């Protein structure tokens, strides 16, 4: 099904003119407006706040300090958003950033990210998803894939039981051949963007590698699906990707430090 992705992308770009490029120069298909995405982000953030209790103020101040430093390194347009940062009491090591300017961190992540630099890596990565419009791209790609499969079904007359079974196979092919690789591409791209953001903010980018080593130790690598069936790159591949961009990140970090960007966020 790899042939379907460039065909669908090209056809939609020509007919809708909805293609743009990500911060790393990768071509993207974006069909949703910023206002739509921001509203979705607001609703999701409100729901998360309803479902999980807030952490104590000490943890909130710590995460807020790191998030503020990362936000200060964003492009001017993104800095103008009314960013909201919340820490949630949950043992699950999770964090997210949403369109519209929302950052959430679970207290469980503070057990994995054991320093301000490591947590800056997490926050930079999640904000990187927002900067690169990954939520928009994922929704747009899934919609385009569904439309493409429907068109193939109609054109081929696949209405019989056998045809429906074949469409099921095509759907699986589309899932593993298009949607998931895009998700892995997003994760790798967010790693690169986050590495640059944390370095610009004055956090040590080398700690991003330590973070993923901690993550490997915490998960033990057990129970994970094969990488080709996963929405996330393998942790070893993520570390390799970070190391491949480390020289540039270190140069950015040294420049930020010389310009006075030296965040000091006391860990609770």
Automatic annotation (TrEMBL):
Residues 1-17 form the signal peptide. Its cofactor is Zn(2+). Binds 1 zinc ion per subunit. InterPro entries: Mito/Outer_Membr_Metalloprot, Peptidase_M48. Residues 59-244 form the Peptidase M48 domain. It comes from the Bacteria. The keyword Hydrolase applies. Belongs to the peptidase M48 family. This is M48 family metallopeptidase. It comes from Halomonas casei.
């Amino acid at each position: 099904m790899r042939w379907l992705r460039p065909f669908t992308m090209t056809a939609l770009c020509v007919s809708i003119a909805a293609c743009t490029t990500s911060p790393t120069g990768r071509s993207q298909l974006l069909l949703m407006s910023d206002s739509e995405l921001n509203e979705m982000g607001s609703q999701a953030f409100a729901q998360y706040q309803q479902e999980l209790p807030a952490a104590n103020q000490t943890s909130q101040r710590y995460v807020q300090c790191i998030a503020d430093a990362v936000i200060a390194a964003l492009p001017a347009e993104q800095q103008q958003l009314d960013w909201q940062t919340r820490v949630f009491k949950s043992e699950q090591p999770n964090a997210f950033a949403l369109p519209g300017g929302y950052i959430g961190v679970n207290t469980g992540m503070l057990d994995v990210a054991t320093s301000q630099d490591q947590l800056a890596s997490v926050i930079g990565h999640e904000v990187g998803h927002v900067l690169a419009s990954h939520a928009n791209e994922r929704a747009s790609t899934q919609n385009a894939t569904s439309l493409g499969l429907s068109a193939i079904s109609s054109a081929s007359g696949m209405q019989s039981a056998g045809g429906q079974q074949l469409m099921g196979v095509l759907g699986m092919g589309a899932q593993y051949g298009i949607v998931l690789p895009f998700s892995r591409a997003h994760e790798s791209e967010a790693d690169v963007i986050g590495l640059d953001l944390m370095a610009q903010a004055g956090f040590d980018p080398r700690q991003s590698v330590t973070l993923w080593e901690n993550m490997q130790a915490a998960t033990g690598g057990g129970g994970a699906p094969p990488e080709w069936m996963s929405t996330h790159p393998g942790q070893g591949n993520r570390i390799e990707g970070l190391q491949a961009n480390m020289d540039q990140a270190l140069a950015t970090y040294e420049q930020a430090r010389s310009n006075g960007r030296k965040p000091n966020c006391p860990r609770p």
